[in-house]
Amino acid sequence: YLFSSEMGVLGCVIIVITHLMNASPGDEGLFQRWTPHTFIPVISQGWGGIVVGLIAKTSGSVKKGFAVMVGLILSCVLKWLVDGESLHWSTIVAVPVVATSIYLHAKYPPKAPAKQA
């Protein structure tokens, strides 16, 4: 929970600094241009965080590693299908490298340092 709290505090600090610098439209207010469609990514990100939390709590590291790899591949395929354009060469190179590293980390996790007596 500490990391989540740190991220929340950092986000609040950034918002306050942005408002103090007048880098955001202060006349309209924060929720002025929101529509019902604005809630779609907000709700999906919230549910995604809950699902990730449940997976992290109940699954082992190997299952989590495979879930991340499938998520990467699924994201690439959906981007290709939705956008209708081919993936960038860096994505084609990066996804297998990241998937391999996640697999290796899940299959052969780092050993905990030996306790000194």
TrEMBL record:
Compartments, record wording: Membrane
Membrane-crossing residue ranges in chain numbering: 39-56, 65-82, 88-106
Annotated membrane topology: Multi-pass membrane protein
One GO CC term, this protein: Golgi membrane
**What keywords is this UniProt entry annotated with?**
Membrane, Transmembrane, Transmembrane helix
Please list the GO terms describing molecular function. Answer: pyrimidine nucleotide-sugar transmembrane transporter activity
UniProt-recorded name of the protein:
ROCK1 protein
In its UniProt entry, the species of origin is given as Symbiodinium pilosum (Dinoflagellate)
